[in-house]
Amino acid sequence: MIVDLFAGPGGWSFALTRLGVYDIGLEWDQWACTTRAAAGLLTIRTDVARYPTWPFAGRTTGLIASPPCQAWSMAGKRLGRIDQRLVHQAVADLAQGRDTREQLLPSCRDERSLLAAEPMRYLYALNAVGEPEWVAMEEVPDILPLWKQYAVILRRWGFSVWAGILNAADYGVPQTRRRAILLASRTRSAEPPTPTHAKVAEPDTLFGPGRERWVSMAAAIGWGATDRPVPTVCAGGGPGGGPEPFPSGSRKALANARNRGTWKPHLPGAGIVLKPQTRGSGWNARHGDRADNPAGSPAPTITGKATHWRWALRSNNQSNGTVPSQDEPAGTLFFGHRANECRWIPEPTADAPDAGTAPEPIRITAQEAGILQSFPPDYPWQGSKGQVFSQIGNAVPPRLAAHLLAPHLGKTFSTDDFTLAA
Questions:
Q1: CATH number at residue 28
Q2: Are 48 and 193 members of one domain?
Q3: To the nearest whole number, what is the mean pLDDT of the chain?
Q4: Same structural domain for residues 121 and 227?
Q5: What residues make up the domain containing 81?
Q6: Span 155-176, mean pLDDT?
Q7: Cβ-based neighbours of 222, under 8 Å, separated by 6 or more
Q8: Residue 127: CB partners within 8 Å, gap ≥ 6?
Q9: 384-395 b/e with 16+ CB inside 10 Å = b?
Q10: What are the φ/ψ torsions at residue 401 (nearest 5 degrees)?
Q11: Sequence-separated (6 or more) residues with CB below 8 Å from residue 210
Q12: Phi, psi at residue 256, to the nearest 5°?
């Protein structure tokens, strides 16, 4: 079997299903487990730190681990960095069969920090019976020194190991999500997968195929072609994702306007001409009579000449208050206590700097966020809005996971094998 520690809503697991393989996920969060069940993924709801290792000994070919990132992520207080010495000590002790977690835990500033040492507890037990055949682990970049400690130990046990930072955008994920990755194998040389995408498209050469341009936010969601991906989507707040991030309000009208069968983008794409309107307030005034406009292309009201608008993604946590446009890279989006600030806002294009009154900002939807993590639009997320956004932000992008796992499974994998948002 393949064991997935801290399995979340199914980023790794969904990727495996696309490769024709299934795993068993260990996960504590109730709503992540409910989402996994709705997606048909095998799950044990349990505390990874307390679950015994013996049920897996003698039957495990692969071990996957993505420990919770809140203690290390820039979305949180980053107390994991302060606790790093204690986590390294726990890993060193577990690698020698000494469990000192209870003694170290009281000294940790964030009790979640030690969860990053849990994979070593499983690896030590499995190594005693010559398992697993391969290992794949993922976390935020700040944890790379810990992955390098794991690498030293695994090499001593006979593994080939690679540890480093990868950008999910280089593998077709519409998001510049940088992650610390560890890959290890007993049977093959461990190395990162060859990138399939680049910031600027690269042509084929005599030495091999070129790389496609990064998948942009607009292309993934269906607004038309633009150049670059959106930023990392990650979660903040507590296990349940904090308060409801997006109350209904103006979103309700947009939700009611969508086709309930096949999802349609709710924003006009770049270059859409916005028609002047002189009607009253509300949805019809902002967007005109739907009968007068092409389906899926509402025309928000302006009080002046017709002009062009495009959409940008605003998040107040971004450095220097930047508001990147849909065709530019963007800063990190946090889901949880800061989620109310994540919204699409209109900005005039360069050919129309004096655009008049702009359409109202629109809050990002969970479906859009899921697509930007490379989940399909019909992925069966379960729970409240806050719980769903938390799951999405903490998930491993399935498309990145598929690239990481395919070599270990003896599978070939190309960009055409994975449906991004269709």
A1: 3.40.50.150
A2: yes
A3: 76
A4: no
A5: 2-209+395-417
A6: 93
A7: 264, 265, 421
A8: 157
A9: ebbbbbbbbbbb
A10: -60, -40
A11: 201, 202, 203, 204
A12: -65, -25
